[in-house]
Design brief:
- With 308 residues, this protein is mainly β.
- The chain has 2 domains: 134 residues, Cathepsin D, subunit A, domain 1 (Beta Barrel), CATH 2.40.70; 128 residues, Beta Barrel (Cathepsin D, subunit A, domain 1).
- It contains 4 helices and 20 strands.
- The strands form 3 sheets. The chain has a 6-stranded antiparallel β-sheet with strand order 1-9-8-19-20-10, covered by helices on one side.
- The protein is globular, with a radius of gyration of 20 Å.
- It starts with 5 loop residues before the first helix and ends with a strand.
- The N terminus is likely disordered.
Length: 308
């Protein structure tokens, strides 16, 4: 291991101080660093004082899920699974039935906290773990974000979960797109070249998915088939395409590569009757180039900046 010279140490400490200041400005109080394998977000957390690594999955309509190994500890009883728990369906295949539940008295992610959280206990799926690319103990779902202003600064690798009274509105008036939490889904609007259509925001989807019937002009990517693993561990190869444009979060993005999938069935499950299925699922490949604001207090979704 090379030894840094004193001058190099001073420069490195100064650089770290600048990064810390930028992180505080970007995320506000309670901005936490995160790991980002495959552009995903894994945050350090404390569950009743016990350290955990949790995957941020805004495409999961639940609140908190813990793999069985993380949920099992001395003195903590795992209760029965909720009576309504059934084998739901992911994008590609069935979801596993939860093994049970465990109550977390206090969940903390840096300066943010939740009191009295009932977590689902789930099996660890080997295929899903390989797709994530790093160890994790559970999942923070969209339901835990109600009443929060979530800021994910991918370039700085910080995330904040400000409560509704903790900070003022993020962004300027009218910036971004409308955002709401609907049946546990983060629902916004996008324009794929055929007018505004509903879309989900899924920080744990490695790829952005688009329904080909809802897309404007696009070109197939030669030989462009990419593997995808859904939340239930089901894998499939999907065709790639390059869209002429995507307008989302107050930003217009050109030449975006996406995966094509019929979203009318699997993605629309659980939405209120009469709600049209999403035209797109905005995934980590697109989100991770920017600073992302998911303001569920003001009802705004904004894409800010661009990482080159």
């Amino acid at each position: 291991m090379p030894i840094a010279r004193p001058a190099a140490v001073v420069r490195r400490l100064a650089a770290l101080a600048v990064v810390a200041a930028l992180a505080a400005a970007a995320g506000g109080a309670g901005a936490a660093p995160f790991d980002s394998p495959a552009h995903l977000v894994i945050v350090p957390a404390l569950a009743d004082g016990r350290p955990l690594r949790l995957l941020l999955d805004t495409g999961d309509p639940g609140a908190l899920s813990l793999v069985a190994a993380a949920a099992s500890r001395p003195g903590v009883a795992i209760g029965p699974a909720p009576a309504h728990a059934t084998a739901g369906r992911g994008l590609l295949g069935p979801l596993p039935i939860p093994l049970g539940t465990v109550r977390i008295g206090r969940l903390a992610v840096d300066g943010a906290e939740w009191i009295g959280v009932e977590a689902l206990v789930i099996r660890e799926d080997a295929a899903l773990a390989r797709a994530v690319g790093a160890p994790y103990d559970g999942v923070i779902g969209a339901a835990l974000l109600a009443g929060r202003r979530l800021v994910i600064d991918y370039p700085l690798r910080t995330v904040s979960f400000a409560a509704d009274a903790a900070v003022g509105p993020v962004g300027g008036p009218g910036r971004g797109s409308a955002l709401r939490l609907d049946a546990g889904r983060l629902l916004t609007e996008v324009d794929l070249g055929r007018g505004r259509r509903p879309a989900f925001i899924d920080t744990a989807s490695a790829a952005t998915l688009v329904d080909p019937g809802a897309a404007g002009p696009w070109q197939a990517v030669p030989g462009g088939t990419q593997g995808l693993v859904d939340a239930g561990g089901t894998a499939a190869g999907l065709p790639s395409a390059r869209l002429e444009r995507i307008a989302a979060g107050g930003k217009v993005l050109h030449g975006v590569t996406v995966l094509l999938l019929d979203l009318a069935d699997g993605a629309g499950g659980g939405l209120p009757a009469g709600t049209p299925p999403p035209a797109a699922i905005l995934g980590a490949d697109l989100l991770s180039r920017h600073r992302i604001v998911l303001d569920l207090v003001a009802g705004r979704f904004a894409i800010e900046g661009d990482r080159r």
